[in-house]
Structures are given as C-alpha cells and as structure tokens.
Q: What sequence folds into this?
C-alpha cells in the first residue's frame, strides 16, 4: 500500500530564506506524487505534480520539487520565502489515475518577518 | 483547470438530524469521487471512494450506515451524515477524478465545515 511521510509538522523560516519541506513516499509501483497547499478553512490547491516525466517539477508560486527514486523522496523547495507562503502543505501519493489519493500528515509553514 | 463545487460551504445542525453535502464536477465527468474528513490541524483522512452507479468503498473504521454516499451521476456525489452528533463536527472535502488516462490529478472542492450542536 502506498503512503507518504512528511518530516516536520512545523517549519519556520525567515522571509527571503530557502523553504524546504520534506516528503518521503512508499509505493509498490511507480507513483504519482503531488504537493498541495491549504489556507485556513479552505480546500486544497495543487502546487505541482510528478507523473514520471521530468524528475524536477516546477509548480506555481515559485515552488519546485525533485523526485529521487533512490531516496524515495519528493521534497518541496522554494528559493525565497514570501509572507504569503504561510500555510499548510500536504504531500500526497496515488498509484494510478483512478486510485485514491493518500495524504501525508502535513507541514505548517510559518514565515518570520 | 477543472472545477469541483461543494455545497454548502458551512452548515450548523442540531444533534440527531441528518445533513447532506453535495459535490459537483462542473466541467468534466467524474468517474470516481472521493470523500475526506479533516480534523483541526490534521491531515485529510479518506473516508470512502465512490464510482458512478456503484456502491461506495469505505475505508476501515468508517461507518457506512452513518456516512451515506451516493454517486448517482457522473457529475454529482452526495455525502449524508445521518443522525449527526457533535463528534461528527469536522471539515469534509470531496475530490473528483476524470476518466482514467485523461489526467493524473484529482480536483478538490472547497470543503464543508459541519458543526453539530
């Protein structure tokens, strides 16, 4: 069964600093991987997705993630944090376009002025 | 991108009553829809998967008689919380997947905040 583990329930960085949110996956087949962002009392917004094409995936709002099969990782990065990036971030996995999506526990990102 | 509309966005109901939440795919046909529940400051937990015209598949520990899911058409799924109690208060989110092979994404509704008093 597939699963994802997000290391760090809370990450705090200074405005302008590098953002790194960690995600490791487990899947018996080549997975589809996603990063979503959630603002308070709202639904989910897709940041980016990996679907077995390029291993470095660029998303919206300056975020990107790199799929590393050898490390079973799909960490999310952004070179320079903005105050507006403060939100909850979820890594997710599914093993086909028809299967359920399983979410990690989430990482709350705080940005210090 | 594809749009999924969830209604209502929030609802308050009395203990013992039933509440229905609708999830509609506005510009695509959703062969599969998923229902999630999210407690404050926690992740999304999958409750059930529904395919159009067939019975929903519930995750372990989810009471199917309490959380009734109907996926009667390719654009509409409903979740009915029956005989609601305060512990059912939560944020419920639906998601819809287009026909397999069209995209790897599932598209999410904006969520429904249920408060049972």
A:
């Amino acid at each position: 069964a597939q699963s994802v583990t997000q290391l760090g329930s809370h990450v705090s960085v200074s405005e302008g600093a590098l953002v790194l949110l960690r995600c490791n996956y487990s899947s018996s087949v080549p997975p589809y991987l996603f990063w979503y962002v959630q603002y308070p009392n709202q639904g989910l917004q897709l940041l980016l997705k990996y679907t077995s094409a390029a291993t470095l995936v660029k998303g919206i709002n300056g975020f990107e993630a790199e799929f590393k099969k050898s490390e079973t990782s799909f960490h999310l990065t952004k070179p320079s944090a903005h105050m507006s990036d403060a939100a909850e971030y979820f890594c997710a996995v599914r093993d086909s376009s028809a299967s359920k999506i399983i979410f990690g526990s989430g990482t709350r990102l705080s940005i210090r002025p | 991108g594809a749009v999924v509309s969830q209604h209502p966005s929030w609802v308050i109901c009395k203990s013992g009553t039933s509440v229905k939440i609708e999830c509609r795919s506005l510009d695509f046909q959703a062969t599969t829809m998923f229902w999630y529940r999210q407690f404050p400051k926690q992740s999304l937990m999958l409750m059930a998967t529904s395919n159009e015209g067939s019975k929903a598949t519930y995750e372990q520990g989810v009471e199917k008689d309490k959380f009734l899911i109907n996926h009667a058409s390719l654009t509409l799924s409903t979740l009915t919380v029956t005989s609601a109690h305060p512990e059912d208060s939560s944020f419920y989110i639906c998601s819809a997947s287009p026909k397999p092979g069209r995209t790897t994404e599932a598209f999410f509704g904006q969520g429904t905040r249920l408060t049972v008093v």
